[in-house]
Specification:
Blueprint lengths: L6 E3 L5 E3 L29 H5 L132 H13 L4 E3 L7 H4 L2 H24 L4 H34 L13 E10 L14 E12 L14 E11 L2 E5 L5 E4 L7 E5 L2 E6 L8 H9 L9 E9 L3 E11 L2 E5 L5 E2 L12 E2 L2 E5 L11
Length: 483
């Protein structure tokens, strides 16, 4: 007994055994179209604009419908994704991406290639004209991407303001060109920006050692009053009794006091530096919070490094450039208190910022808070950079340019330029108060000045040290430690 085998007829007319296959429901495929650059306008952001109920620009929406002149398949697969219009093909395997505009289509043969062009004038072949900002080679070279929005650097980041002209580095940012500035305006702007930076503390001449400032005013006026009364009394006794003993005593005492004042004025700074050198070093590891310490170690720059004014020494934490003038009998005074036959200060530029110091004893690193307007007393040795007079002025064009940048006259005067600095890797001594804030170890200015006390063996009066004390020898003669 035979059984009947089912069969069915194919579309080409052939009969085959078996039952016909059931037509499966086709799963819809999702196509992703590259979103154009919107320039930050939410109205051009597609679905994002619909979420905020914002009317979209243009009434046409992207559809992934059938393409005009559908591509034929020859050899390998060639297809096109759905975009904001029909798709055209090119012989090159590279694509040109632009924002919007109608595009036409043609057949694709051999390999898939996609090209989206911008709306605008067409060339002779009917293709949209390609615009580029530089020379292009033959048709096989990749074309440039052209947007109707603001230009972007190679990093893809949108920045405020136009892209500056000039050379760019590998990240797309303007490349910094090292070398001397041709314009004095840029140097002046740099000087003003340093002075106005809140992280930079600008020091004045009052921050340096001065015996007159250390001597209390009441004591000074009391001494003056006593000697005035002594001279009056001595002169009266000399005229009435013809006895000059009191006047001689007053003159001798006045000479001794004047000699002491002169001695302290000349040697007071050196005596204070000796006091700082003899002060014992403390170990940061065992220092308590609020303890006044002296720490010696190697300097490391913080967030804002400085540069010396004249010699252009980079990565400094302290810089000081002073211009002095010698006043002869008929010369002009450098300042209102400038006396004849002496050197007077005409200009000073002194700045200091926060920095780190690595303790020699414990190896710990502490942040020294000398920036942001902190009180600082520097004892940094300055080196004489240049001596200028009427004969050798023309031999130093750098000095003449430095004067011109600061609007200082360069007439026939005897001038001396001194410059001191503390650069990264220098060895310094810092005196201040330890402050521990969680895991941060800092040295901050003390609330009250520290006195050095009387040095009777050297006939030195007490001196006060205000704020953080910085002590560094002449760094131009000492090799720094690389850090």
């Amino acid at each position: 007994m035979g059984s009947r085998i089912p069969s069915h007829q194919l579309s080409n007319g052939l009969y085959v055994s078996g039952r016909p296959e059931q037509q499966k429901e086709r799963v819809p495929t999702m196509s992703s179209a590259a979103m154009p650059y919107t320039g930050g306008d939410i109205k051009k952001s597609g679905e994002l604009g619909k979420m905020f109920d914002i009317h979209m620009e243009g009434s046409k929406s992207r559809k992934s419908g059938p393409l005009n002149n559908a591509p034929s398949r020859t050899g390998s697969f060639g297809g096109a994704a759905s975009h904001s219009g029909p798709i055209t093909s090119n012989a090159a395997a590279r694509a040109v991406y632009t924002n919007s505009g109608p595009v036409s289509s043609a057949g694709i043969s051999g390999s898939a290639s996609v090209k989206r062009s911008n709306s605008g004038p067409l060339n002779r072949q009917g293709d949209p004209a390609k615009k580029s900002s530089g020379p292009q080679s033959g048709g096989g070279t990749p074309a440039a991407r052209q947007n109707s929005g603001p230009l972007l650097p190679t990093t893809g980041l949108i920045t405020s303001g136009p892209i500056s002209s000039g050379p760019l580095n590998s990240s797309g940012a303007p490349r910094k060109v090292s070398g001397p500035q041709d314009s004095m305006g840029s140097v002046k702007t740099h000087t003003i920006s340093i002075a106005q930076n809140p992280a930079v503390t600008t020091l004045s001449q009052d921050d340096d050692f001065s015996f007159k400032r250390n001597l209390p005013k009441p004591i000074l006026w009391s001494i003056i009053l006593i000697f005035v009364m002594g001279f009056i009394a001595g002169g009266f006794i000399l005229g009435a009794v013809h006895n000059a003993i009191l006047l001689v005593v007053v003159v001798v005492l006045f000479g001794i006091v004047a000699a002491l004042f002169t001695w302290n004025t000349c040697w007071g700074r050196r005596a204070t530096i000796g006091f700082i050198s003899r002060y014992p070093d403390s170990e940061l590891r065992t220092a308590k919070n609020g303890q006044y310490v002296k720490v010696s170690g190697v300097v490391t720059c913080g967030n804002v490094p400085l540069e010396s004014s004249f010699q252009k020494v980079p990565r400094c934490v302290y810089t000081s450039t002073s211009l002095y003038e010698y006043r002869a009998w008929d010369s002009k005074a450098a300042n209102p208190t400038h006396r004849r036959f002496t050197w007077g200060l005409r200009s000073i530029e002194s700045h200091v910022v926060d920095f780190y110091i690595s303790d020699f004893q414990s190896g710990l690193r502490a942040l020294v808070k000398t920036g942001f307007g902190a009180r600082v007393t520097p004892y940094v040795d300055d080196s004489i950079v240049i001596d200028v007079n009427a004969e050798n002025k023309e031999l130093s064009p750098e000095f003449i340019r430095w004067l011109g940048e600061r609007n200082l006259s360069s007439d026939d005067r005897m001038m001396r330029l001194k410059e001191g600095y503390i650069k990264e890797g220098s060895t310094v001594s810092v005196m201040g108060v330890v402050q521990r804030n969680e895991n941060v170890l800092m040295i901050v200015p003390p609330p009250d000045p520290i006195t050095t006390g009387c040095q009777w063996a050297k006939c030195i009066f007490p001196a006060s040290l205000e704020g953080i004390v910085l002590r560094c020898e002449d760094t131009s003669k000492i090799d720094v430690i690389p850090v």
